[in-house]
Amino acid sequence: MKKRVEDFAFFGGEKTFQTPLHIAQVNLPPWESVTSAFRGIFERRYFANHGPIVRELDARFAEFVGSRHAVCVTNGTIALMILAKALASSGEVIVPSYTFPATVQALSWAGLTPVLCDVDPETQMVTPETIAPHITPHTSGILAVHLWGQPCAPESLESLAADRGISLMFDACHSIGCAYNNRKVGNFGNGEAFSFHATKILSGGEGGCITTNDDHLAEKLRTIRSFHPGETFVPAALRINGKMSEAQAALALLSLEQYPQNKAANLRRYEAYRLGLAGIPGVSLLSFDPDTDNNYQYIVLDIDESIAGIHRDIFFKLLTAENIICRRHFYPGVHNMPPYSKMEATVKSRFPVTDRLCQRALQLPTSQVMTEADVQMICELIRDIQAKADPIKARVSDAP
Ligand SMILES: Cc1ncc(COP(=O)(O)O)c(C=O)c1O
User: What pLDDT is attached to residue 346?
Assistant: First the structure.
């Protein structure tokens, strides 16, 4: 416990953690399983171009999700670009501003025009109500985001897209293994894009995948993903090198095998955070709908300064100084970032919910390297910071 304000590392005290606790550190598979998988790659001397391990991962991930097709690619951003290009070759695509910038920039890279919209204050995600006002004759699709492992209104968005005759895709980068009404994420809309980045519950270091139940779309996705003549299934004007390597696929396959234990460990840490943070005024941990299946990969706080007596940014500064690497997601909101901040449509629109969330959200670390005692220590620090709000604010000269 930090007895005095001077005890916090930000003010010169000793750091609580000697080495940084990153927001998420890759859940490593056992070393022996890695050497055995890589021995096979070395023996075959086959590293790229739709090798046997990539093909196995395509099949195994489709089986895991329960979709007809899975098309593995280099990363989640490329997955979004290829999916968007395959579904909507031109026009406007409606997308939330409260998301990781890659969601929106993938549309720009695919030659589409992103139209940013606000999100619902309860779910922090888009709903038919936040999307509908932006639909015009130029709209070709919707790109919704399943945030923090929660499914994003999939059935009502499917009805909206069908009624308006536009395509529906999901950024499912956060939502590997999640489900809605027993329907797994990966089966909604026309197609869904996943990330296998090192911060994700299933990781190939880098990596990504697109799932779909549409056979024709799958052929288009496979064609766009590479320039390989043997991988040309339908005509496609523009293609890209979005191929996953054998090394990435080998790590991702091992990670897929470990999914159940990694999810269970995430849940234990989530519960430890929930108990540890209980009763801190103005600090609430994002709760998940018990009817949906979550992967618990994201520990996200909402900090209400009017109750906590201290702004989220001061928690951020003090925790970072203790070597607790947290994130102010998704500050300052895509509508406030280049190249979108000056676009006419963005300037004219209003994003009150996104603006509020960007001032209040704080993501905390969770990973295989952390113990439940680490979690308790982080919770105690947060309790201490809130309890000493006034003297801390008095000493943080650049407090907002
Ligand atoms: C919501 C969201 N979309 C897209 C991406 C991009 O994925 P990648 O880093 O694999 O390109 C991320 C990555 O963190 C993400 O969190």
Answer: 80
